[in-house]
Specification:
Number of domains: 2
Strand content: 15-25%
Structural class: alpha/beta
Largest sheet: 6 strands, mixed
Shape: globular
Low-confidence stretches: none
Number of helices: 7
Number of strands: 13
Amino acid sequence: MIVGNLQFYIVIMVFIALVLFFLLTLYCRWENRQFTITEYRLKSDKIKKRTTLAVLADLHNYEYGVDNEQIIRALDDINPDLVISAGDMVEAGRFVKKNAQTVGFLAKLCERYDFVYGCGNHELKVMQAEDEYPRAAKQFAEGMEDARAYLRDRCPQKASSIEPLDNRCQDYPERGIKIYGMNLEYDYFRKVIVKRTSGKHVAELVGEPEDGVYNILIGHNPDHMHSYAQWGADLVLSGHVHGGMVALPGHRGIISPRLVLFPKYHWGEYHEGRTTMILSGGLGNHTVHVRIFNRAEIVKIVLEPGSAE
């Protein structure tokens, strides 16, 4: 009789576990297909004109509606002066299918808004590691060629906007803003053990920050915040961590892509000296497609003239 009861309880426990796993899978799938808008407001006496930024990070070829129409609608609601990619819009992998399609979406962003294409480690791979990821690199290259032709036909003055800001800068003197697109070498994205960079190395890649200007650095990997501050960034735009994938109350991310538990930088706003870093939770995932209590997001940043509080 005892054995029979034990078997019954085991069956019940297994059934409950399967139901919970099924519900968690459904929730995770739902969480992966929703996004929110997170707003930040920053002031600096270097800024000449109120400027609204919309920051996209870590799309990884995800689609929100046909041709990403949901993202377009959200951007229309934000009405940004600049749309900035903080990296990893596309994906580097053996079986990637949609890099060209994503670049086509970015071309439409260029047509519609002032767009700045900052790089992440996945752009780095498809642009510099073609032998390792030939399929992904080929799709990206073909997508870029089509995007250039599309923009030359529709709005030739914006044709260069689709080009990744690969260790280059873009100047907006009327706004008092300069945006630096840094493309760190892949060694700085290795898993588990962090290879530290420095402010000097950042300067070797993108040049020195300009005095009297609000210097925005696109630094995809937030683990190097100290070096970005050492370099002299006023604002760092980052991604890469996907919000820690699974979040605890208070949006405390549990694990980073380099397989570190409770990473120091996981989501939100961080400060070091006079440098502010806004770390996006991103819009997509790769490899392990998990988001739990960690909604994908578009980041809205309003930069205003005036003394920082």
